[in-house]
Write a structure and sequence with these properties.
CATH class of the largest domain in chain B: Alpha Beta
Strand content of chain A: 5-15%
Number of strands of chain A: 2
Structural class of chain A: mainly alpha
Largest interface: A-B, 17 and 13 residues
CATH topology of chain A: Sufe protein. Chain: A
CATH class of chain A: Alpha Beta
CATH superfamily of the largest domain in chain B: Type I PLP-dependent aspartate aminotransferase-like (Major domain)
Shape of chain A: globular
Number of domains of chain B: 2
Radius of gyration of chain A: 14 Å
Bound molecules: pyridoxal-5'-phosphate
Number of helices of chain B: 14
Structural class of chain B: alpha/beta
Radius of gyration of chain B: 22 Å
Largest sheet of chain A: 2 strands, antiparallel
Number of helices of chain A: 7
Oligomer: heterodimer
Largest sheet of chain B: 7 strands, mixed
Number of domains of chain A: 1
Strand order of the largest sheet of chain A: 1-2
Strand content of chain B: 15-25%
CATH topology of the largest domain in chain B: Aspartate Aminotransferase, domain 2
Chain lengths: 138, 404
C-alpha cells in the first residue's frame, strides 16, 4: 500500500458528497467502524496533546512499515483518527516522513470541514511523523 | 425603551454573514460583542487625542487625562463605590485577582491560615490562590456547592473559623448562571474578621452591582465581558485595604519622589497602576458602561429573563439533554450535555450551522468534575439575542443529535 493510493481513495470517497451533512455522516461512519483501542493503550503516554477531546494514538513499525491504531472519546475526532489510520497504515516509514499536511486540502477537509482547526488533526499527524523520524534516526 | 432591532443594529458584528448566512452568537460568557459606541470611542482616542496621561503639559494630554479620569468616576458609580481611588484599572479580571493574591494576602497571612475557595470557581479565581497559598504556607479549603453550583451556605458556616483569613468566590457562575449570596457571605466573613474577594466577571453585564451594599472587600471584572474592549479590567477595593496593598509592578506613573537609590510610592490609585495604562481600553470601557446605562439594567434583566425562560423550557422539553442545573439560572447561561455524545462533537456541528457555543471544561476543570461531567456544551446568551435564535438553536441541536 502506498500513501498516494490511500490518499486518492479517501479523496474520491469524500468527493462523492455534496453537502457538509453527508461529509460528516461519512466521517462519523468511519469513526463508528474503527476498531476500538484496547483499554490498556488508553494511557497518558499515548494521549495526543492539543486536542479538545481525548485522542490516543499507538504507533508501531514492522518491516519498515507503520502500523497505527487510535481512538477518541468524540465521534468526529474518532472519524479523523480512522482517516489517518487508512491514510498511513502499512505505508513505509520513508514515504511517511516526506508527506506534508497539504493532503488535508486535497481531501477537502480544510475547505469543507471547518473543524480541522481545532480538532488537533495536525497534532495527530505530527505525532505520527515524529514517531517515524525517531525510528529513522535510530 | 428596549427595541431589539435597534439594539442589534448597535452591534455591527451581529450583521456579519458566513457562507451568506447570519450567525448566532451564544458565547457571551466568554466575551460579549461591542456596540458601535465603544468601537468609535476607541477609534476616536487614537484619531483625535492620542497622548499619554498625567504627564504632558499640552492640550492633547489634558483631553486624554480628563477622559481617563472621567472613566474612573463612571466605573465608581457603576459599582456604587464611594471613592474614585477605590477603582484600579487592570488588564482584566485575572490581573485583578492576582494583585490581591500577591499584593494583599502576603501582607498579613501566616503559615497555617486558611483561605476558603468555592469548588465551582473559574481557574482565574483558583490557580493564583493555589500558588500564593503555597508560598505563604497557608491552606486552601474548598467550599461545597449545592446542585446549582452556588455555595452551600451550611458548609460555609461550618468551615468559617478564626483561622480563615480570606474567602474568594464568584458572583455568578460561568457554568450554571446561578448567583451566590454575596451579601450574606460577606456579613458572616466579617464577623470572623476574614476578607472577601468577589469575582464579578459573569455578573456585571447582567445585573447592577453595588459593592457598598454587598459590603465585599474586593470586586473584580473584565471590560470585554461587559461590551468593552479586551485588555482592560477593574479591581475595586476598600480604600484602607488598597492602602495596605503592595504593588506587583513598579515603574513610572506610580511614585512620589525618586532618587537614584530610593523612591517613595505615590498615592492611590496610581500606586497600583504602574506604567502607561491601556488608555484606549479604559476609555472604551467607559463607553461600554455608558451604553449599558442607556439601556438600563431593568430592561436588560427583563429581556434576559424572557430569553432564559424560553431556553430553559426548550431544553427541558428535549429528553436527551442533560442540563447541569436543576433550577432555571438567574443569568441566561446554559451548560448541558447531549446524552451519550461528546460536547466537542456537538460544538463542531453547531459551528457548521453558524452557531457559536463554548464546549469542554469551560476553564473550570474542578467545577466540571464537581458537576459529574467531563465537559459541557455552553450556550450563554445576552440581551441582544432573540427568541428566534433560540428556536433556530433548538432545531440545530435536534439536527446534530440526528447526525450523531
Ligand atoms: C467567572 C470568571 N472569572 C474570571 C474570568 C477571567 O476573565 P479574564 O480572562 O477576562 O481575565 C472568567 C472568564 O472566562 C470568568 O468566567
Amino acid at each position: 500500500m502506498s500513501f498516494e493510493i490511500n490518499k486518492s481513495v479517501i479523496v474520491s470517497d469524500f468527493n462523492l458528497f455534496d453537502s457538509w451533512e453527508e461529509r460528516y455522516e461519512h466521517l462519523i461512519d468511519l469513526g463508528k467502524s474503527l476498531e476500538p483501542l484496547d483499554l490498556d493503550f488508553k494511557n497518558n503516554s499515548n494521549l495526543v496533546e492539543g486536542c479538545q477531546a481525548n485522542v490516543w494514538l499507538v504507533c508501531e513499525i514492522k518491516n519498515e512499515k507503520l502500523n497505527v491504531m487510535g481512538d477518541s472519546d468524540a465521534i468526529i475526532t474518532r472519524g479523523l483518527v480512522a482517516l489517518l489510520v487508512r491514510l498511513f497504515n502499512n505505508c513505509s516509514v520513508k514515504e511517511i516522513i516526506h508527506t506534508n499536511n497539504s493532503f488535508l486540502d486535497e481531501i477537502g477537509l480544510n475547505k469543507h470541514l471547518s473543524m480541522t482547526r481545532s480538532n488537533g488533526i495536525n497534532a495527530m499527524i505530527k505525532k505520527i511523523h515524529e514517531y517515524c523520524l525517531n525510528y529513522i534516526k535510530k | 425603551m428596549f427595541e431589539l432591532k435597534k439594539i442589534r443594529s448597535d452591534f455591527p458584528i451581529l450583521s456579519k454573514k458566513r457562507n451568506e448566512k447570519s450567525f448566532i452568537y451564544f458565547d457571551n460568557a466568554a466575551t460579549t460583542q461591542k456596540p458601535q459606541e465603544v468601537i468609535n470611542e476607541v477609534c476616536d482616542f487614537y484619531t483625535h487625542y492620542n497622548s499619554n496621561i498625567e504627564r504632558g503639559m499640552y492640550f492633547l494630554a489634558d483631553e486624554s487625562t480628563k477622559k481617563f479620569n472621567d472613566t474612573r468616576s463612571i466605573v465608581r458609580s457603576f459599582l456604587n463605590a464611594k471613592l474614585n481611588e477605590e477603582i484600579i484599572f487592570t488588564s482584566g479580571c485575572t490581573q485583578s485577582i492576582n494583585m490581591v493574591c500577591f499584593g494583599f494576602l502576603n501582607t498579613f497571612i501566616k503559615p497555617g491560615d486558611q483561605i476558603l475557595i468555592g469548588k465551582m470557581e473559574h481557574h482565574a479565581n483558583l490557580v493564583p490562590w493555589q500558588i500564593a497559598s503555597n508560598r505563604l504556607k497557608a491552606k486552601i479549603i474548598p467550599l461545597e456547592s449545592s446542585e446549582n453550583g452556588v455555595i452551600d451556605m451550611s458548609d460555609f458556616k461550618k468551615k468559617i473559623n478564626s483561622k480563615v483569613k480570606f474567602i474568594a468566590i464568584q458572583h455568578i457562575s460561568n457554568i450554571t448562571g446561578h448567583e451566590n449570596n454575596i451579601q450574606e457571605i460577606c456579613s458572616i466573613a466579617h464577623q470572623h474578621n476574614a476578607f472577601v474577594l468577589v469575582d464579578g466577571a459573569q455578573a456585571v453585564s447582567h445585573k447592577s452591582v453595588n459593592v457598598h451594599s454587598l459590603n465585599c472587600d474586593f470586586y473584580c471584572f473584565s471590560g470585554h465581558k461587559c461590551f468593552g474592549p479586551t485588555g482592560v479590567g477593574v479591581l475595586y477595593g476598600k480604600k484602607d485595604l488598597l492602602l495596605r496593598m503592595t504593588p506587583l509592578l513598579f515603574g513610572g506613573n506610580m511614585i512620589g519622589r525618586v532618587s537614584f537609590s530610593n523612591s517613595s510610592l505615590g498615592d492611590l490609585p496610581q500606586k497600583l497602576e504602574a506604567g502607561t495604562p491601556n488608555i484606549a481600553g479604559v476609555i472604551g470601557l467607559g463607553a461600554a458602561i455608558n451604553y449599558i446605562s442607556s439601556l438600563g439594567f431593568n430592561n436588560i434583566k427583563l429581556a434576559e429573563k424572557l430569553l432564559a425562560e424560553k431556553m430553559w423550557s426548550a431544553l427541558k422539553a428535549m429528553n436527551n439533554i442533560a442540563l447541569s442545573i436543576k433550577a432555571p439560572p438567574q443569568s441566561p447561561v446554559f451548560s448541558f450535555n447531549v446524552k451519550g455524545i461528546h460536547s466537542y462533537d456537538v460544538g463542531t456541528l453547531l459551528d457548521e450551522m453558524n452557531i457559536c457555543v463554548r464546549t469542554g471544561s469551560l476553564c473550570a476543570q474542578p467545577a466540571i468534575k464537581e458537576l459529574n461531567s467531563t465537559g459541557f456544551v455552553r450556550a450563554s446568551l445576552c440581551f441582544y439575542n432573540t427568541e428566534e435564535e433560540i428556536e433556530l438553536f433548538v432545531s440545530a441541536l435536534k439536527k446534530v443529535i440526528k447526525l450523531l
